[in-house]
Design a protein that fits this description.
Radius of gyration: 21 Å
Number of helices: 9
Pfam family, one: Peptidase_M20
CATH architecture of the largest domain: 3-Layer(aba) Sandwich
CATH superfamily of the largest domain: Zn peptidases
Structural class: alpha/beta
Helix content: 25-40%
Number of domains: 2
CATH class of the largest domain: Alpha Beta
Order of helices and strands: HHHEEEEEHEHEEEEEEHEHEHEEH
GO molecular function, one term: hydrolase activity
Shape: globular
Keywords: Hydrolase, Metal-binding, Zinc
Number of strands: 16
Family: Belongs to the peptidase M20A family.
Strand content: 15-25%
Cofactor: Zn(2+)
CATH topology of the largest domain: Aminopeptidase
Mean pLDDT: 89
Low-confidence stretches: 211-220
Strand order of the largest sheet: 1-2-6-3-7-15
Length: 374
């Protein structure tokens, strides 16, 4: 088995291959509007399946609905049990105004060391790193004690009901692993003295509609509306709130807060459209220790400190934690790559090429450190 530095050197030598894979994934417009039919994740899964098949790695595509594919791949270990899961998602958010982009949003244009395109950062960059890690494990004949799962889910951008939520309900055996790495963290934050990397924990989301009449819309942002022309007095008004909750705050807590705020106001009612129960994983674990160790080796840096973080968004990690999987958000971005340039969900979304390389090294090193036969 090559040592880690030899493997990291292989990643450096394969930069063109890493870039080509990222560009191919971004060029598939797997846009998820939240309204069926949407998503078109199956073509992304097919590209990833064919990429893995080129090195003899078997995978399967599980569709929760037509064209809503979820990819599962596995490298087996001696034990017959998986020890680690790589998670990502294949859908992307819509492009609001293509005219404001520097380059066409699905062109995957390379410019100034970055790949521009919708999904380049969220989340096809991470998928690229994970696919490359599996390829290198297989090509180098690295024998594993415990197996490695790669799971790329659909529908993350609109709640995961056709992706990891569906997999957790219908195929929990496909996700059975004690540890998992997903999107949502591993980006640098700068202080005067040092660079810090974040492990990311995601909190919950709950669209709430306050109304006097009308159906609850499927919105994920705060807005209001009353209808009618501007100089008329509306008979009703509707306010849709995107409520973000912390890990200890459940639906009962949200209802209690709403009841207190609305007490004494006549004619107001509310409904909770969808509740994503927030959760988190402990910071200290075998996985966090391995991530710290491997990141230092992959980056050859001694100036990085680690801090846990909680996000005000949500990821598919909330579906795997109840299955008993310690799940962290960690993408392995390069510490000198400014995360503000990613423009995740925004105009001119992009991914730094050096972050693709560092992320691939870290995913590869993590699998070797935690799973390889010693």
């Amino acid at each position: 088995m090559p040592d880690l530095q030899e493997l990291f050197a292989q990643v450096d030598s394969m930069q063109d291959e890493v870039i080509a894979l990222e560009r191919a994934l971004v060029q598939i417009p797997s846009v998820n509007t939240g309204f069926m039919p949407t998503g078109d994740e199956t073509p992304v899964c097919e590209l990833a399946r064919d990429f893995l098949a080129g090195d003899g790695i078997d995978s399967e595509i599980l569709e929760s609905a037509p064209n809503r594919g979820n990819l599962i791949a596995r490298l087996e270990g001696r034990s017959g049990q998986a020890g680690l899961m790589f998670m990502s998602h294949t859908d992307v958010v819509p492009v609001e105004d293509e005219s404001k982009w520097r380059f066409p949003p699905f062109s995957a244009t390379i410019h100034e060391g970055r790949i521009f395109g919708r999904g380049a950062s969220d989340c096809k960059g991470l998928l690229t790193c994970q696919l490359m890690a599996l390829r290198l494990l297989k090509r180098n004949g690295i024998e594993l004690e415990d197996g490695l799962i790669l799971a790329a889910g659909a529908d993350e951008e609109h709640g995961g009901r056709y992706g990891f939520g569906w997999l957790a309900d219908n195929h929990p055996d496909k996700l059975a692993a004690p540890y998992a790495v997903n999107e949502g963290g591993g980006t640098p934050a700068f202080t005067r003295q040092c660079r810090r990397h974040h492990f990311r924990h995601r909190v919950g989301q709950s669209p709430v509609c306050l109304n006097a009449a009308g159906a609850v819309p499927h919105d994920s942002y705060t807005n209001h509306g009353s209808g009618g022309i501007k100089n008329s007095v509306p008979e009703s008004i509707r306010l849709t709130c995107d409520v973000r909750t912390l890990p200890h705050q459940d639906e009962q807590y949200v209802r209690q807060q709403l009841d207190e705020v609305l007490e004494g106001i006549e004619g107001v009612s509310y409904e909770i459209d969808y509740m994503a129960r927030p959760n988190s994983s402990p910071f200290e674990s075998e996985l966090s220790s391995s991530l710290r160790r491997i990141t230092a080796q992959a980056l050859d840096r001694g100036d990085i400190q680690w801090v846990p973080a909680i996000s005000n968004g949500f990821t598919d990690s909330r579906f795997t934690r109840p299955l008993g999987t310690v799940t962290y958000g960690f993408t392995g971005s390069h510490p000198d790559d400014d995360p503000m340039l990613n423009f995740t969900h925004g105009t001119n979304e992009s991914m730094g090429i050096r972050s693709l390389i560092s992320g691939t090294k870290i995913m590869l090193g993590l699998a070797c450190d935690m799973l390889a036969v010693k």
